[in-house]
Amino acid sequence: MPVKILFADDSAADRLILKSMLPDYTVVTAVDGADALRQIREQPDLGLVVLDLNMPNMDGFQVLEALRNDARLRRLRTILLTSSDEMENEIRGLQLGAADYIRKPLQRDALRARIKTHVDLLQIQQALEQKLQTQGQTYELIFEQAPIGIAISFGSDPSDAEKNAYYSINPMYEQITGRSKASLLELGWARITHPDDLAQDLEQYAKLQAGEIDAYSIEKRLIRPDGSIVWVQLSVSALKIANSHQQNHIALLQDITQRKEMEQALRYNNDHDRWTGLYNRSFLERLLAEDADRTLHEKRAVVGINLVEIQSLTSRYGFQYTQKLIKKIVAALLDHCAGARSLFCTYENRFVFYIKNYTDKQDLIRFSQEIAATLKEHLAPERIGGGISIVEINQDNAYAVEQLLKDLLIASEYAMRDAEHELGVCYYDDQLAANFARRQDIEDELIRVAASKADDGLYLHYQPVLDLKTGRICAFEALTRLHSDMLGNLSPAEFIPIAEEAKLILPIGRKIVSQALCFLKRLHESGFESVSVLINISIIQLIDHEFSRNLFQVIRDVRVNPESIGLEITESVFAADFDRINRILGVLDRAGLHVSIDDFGTGYSSFSREQDLNIKSLKIDKSFVDGIMQTDPDKTVIADIIAMAHKFDHITIAEGVEHEKQLRYLKACGCDWIQGYLVSRPLDENAALDFLARFETR
Question: Three-state SS for 486?
């Protein structure tokens, strides 16, 4: 018949988890200490009670006290369950009669092993006590063949070799200890107990002799004759025999070495990173929390290393290659752990140095630069970079460990942003915190806009594009704007990169396209059929598998001519996957859309590839146009760009034209279209239509 176990815990989730972990036993549950005590009194067939330490109405200690004060219940085997690591609680529980102490979180295999141990001990103890009173012959059989070690003393002291004349020891006890009965009687158990475990055993045994407790259970190490160690579960109980006034005891011994090795492995896995062998984030968090109280007056800091780009190697060379490189990097970083520096792996591609007793901020920066130099040796050949961040620990952040590590990650991301494909160093301070807070506010605003069915603060301005050959306005570039009640007017240079990084550019981009095409329709309905609208598109939008389908659907819904639509993409998109992106552009080009390369000359395209692009025009970056005013025009490359573009039948557009000198030079070079303040500032829809009407009637 399965052993019946009562599990008392105020957490419904923990009750469910424990029941699922113990399918071989009959498990009943109690919601608090008072409920547990009631069920104990009503269910005499309970074999084992597991009590959570912290419960409402009655906690685990109170239940133990009630059991000890009831003669019928004091021998009921109980186990305390808690997430606390406080030794005082463990000692108090054992003093009140608890047989064992299990800590949360529950590990399935370890829990099952512990419960089985206590069930075996319970069954053996119950059998022994019963057989001792009834059948001596059966007792001898059990004693000799029991699967656990048994030692019984009648009026003797097993801790003292001189008083072991009446000590009975079974074969399994001999097997576990690796010693014969004669050797055990000669030595006594104190001399074969590991020195580090002896004090606890002697303390509990003294209480048993004094009558303060009826039993105790401990885990301890025994030393075998060859010097090897065996872990055992020792349970010692007072053995009450009728008409006997002697102090009789029974000791039950079970080999738990395998279980302890498993627990040690689990503990190691919980505290260490699987691939590098370094202590992990969980361990670092506990260490930082502990040191918050212990090292109030020490200088402490954390230096983070974010190597997120290293994961790109996996797609190129495979997982094993990446892991091998990471292990080489870890070995190099460990060379910097001299003194009060410790290295942790907080994620598969993130590491943290925990540093104590440094000199000052500059000392941390110098150390971070040394780390950057070390990393560069390994990462430079791979053409990838990373971010190194610094956060000093003070009274304001010492106890907020999770936020501390979050700040470290934030600073590392800023370091990567400021030094693309390099190893930047960023110190976390109030200004960085303010920048991040604003970034979060902008992202929250973008989330709101993206989720709204209305445009909700998102609107477009339109900058006219002048055809230099006809002298007429040929297009408007749609420029995105965002107004927030909390943040005011936001520049696209600020919020568009955030929208791209947060993957919000897709829903926001659909709103932009819809607005721009509605304006295009309004242009044509106002009689300006020859005027186009140019819309900026990011790479994230372009490579989205739904982009083309959604775009064509909006074109059909709004009923505009695709040939009046221009899409502007920055040339940097071709750094990702030239062939794939060019195929997408081909689909758009065949549909009649006008595709333009924006900011030409600042990114990744080249004249050698330009002829292969499925595009209609090139937009010359403003920096080249500004150069007309700053240097000898004859020394600029604009004329060469225009000539080469025309060779490939591409229209050239110059942006940022603000001065007559620039206009004259661009005309002389044969530039096709221009835009800039010299023509007009960006305008809202109504102003754009008014401007166009006035321009046409000049």
Answer: coil
Dig out the tokens for 47 from the structure. 């074999």
235 class by beta-carbon count within 10 Å (0-12 exposed, 13-18 middle, 19+ buried) = buried
Q: What is the DSSP letter of 336?
A: T
Highest CATH level, class, for 4-106: alpha beta
Cis amide linkage into residue 105, ω under 30° from 0: yes
Nearest to 50 by CA among 80, 88, 20: 80
Q: Would you list the domain boundaries of the chain?
A: 4-106, 134-264, 274-428, 449-696
As a whole number of angstroms, the distance between CA 512 and CA 509 comes to 5
Integer angstrom CA distances of residue 133 from 86, 170, 222, 308, 409: 41, 19, 32, 71, 69
pLDDT of 244 strictly over 60: no
pLDDT in tens, 642-689: 998 899 899 999 999 999 999 999 999 999 999 999 999 999 999 999
Q: Which of 342, 414, 331 is nearest to 374 (CA)?
A: 331
pLDDT tens for each residue of 313-355: 887 888 889 899 999 999 999 999 987 899 999 988 999 999 9
Residue 165 pLDDT class (50, 70, 90 cuts): very low
pTM above 0.85, yes or no: no
How many C-alpha atoms does 256 have within 13 Å on its Cβ side?
A: 28
Mark out the alpha helices in 563-613 (DSSP H runs).
574-590, 607-610
CA angle 540, 545, 548 (to 5 degrees): 90
Q: Which of 272-276, 447-451, 472-476, 498-502 has the highest mean pLDDT?
A: 472-476
The single-letter code of the amino acid at 194 is H
Assign 396 a pLDDT band (cuts: 50, 70, 90): confident
Other beta carbons within 10 angstroms of residue 277's beta carbon come to 11
User: What superfamily does domain 274-428 belong to in CATH?
Assistant: Reverse transcriptase/Diguanylate cyclase domain (3.30.70.270)
Is the CB of residue 280 less than 8 Å from the CB of residue 346? yes
Task: Identify the CATH number of the domain defined by range 134-264.
Answer: 3.30.450.20
The C-alpha R_g of the chain, in whole angstroms, comes to 39
Distance CA 673, CA 499 (A): 30
β-strand pairing of 472-484 with 149-154 = unpaired
- Cα distances (angstroms) measured from residue 175 to each of 45, 116, 140, 148, 191: 33, 20, 18, 10, 17
Q: Does the pLDDT value for residue 601 go beyond 80?
A: no
Token pair, residue 622, equals 């403003």
Burial of 375 (0-12, 13-18, 19+ CB in 10 A): buried
Report which residue type is found at 586.
Answer: G
Average pLDDT over residues 371-381: 90
* CA 650 – CA 594 distance, rounded (Å): 11
Phi, psi of 465 (to 5 degrees): -115, 125
Burial per residue of 520-542, b for 16 or more beta-carbon CB atoms within 10 angstroms, e otherwise? bbebbeeebeebbbbbbbbbbbb
Percent of the chain with pLDDT over 90: 43
**Tokens of residue 222, six digits:** 């025994």
CATH superfamily placement of domain 449-696: EAL domain (3.20.20.450)
Kindly report the three-state secondary structure assignment for every residue of 44-65. Answer: CCCCEEEEECCCCCCCHHHHHH
Contact (CB, 8 A) for 662 and 627: no
Q: Specify whether the CB–CB gap between 238 and 152 falls below 8 A.
A: no
* Phi and psi, residue 565, nearest 5°: -115, 130
Residue partners of 624: CB distance under 8 A and separation at least 6: 601, 636, 637, 638, 641
**Beta-bridge mates of residue 347:** 350
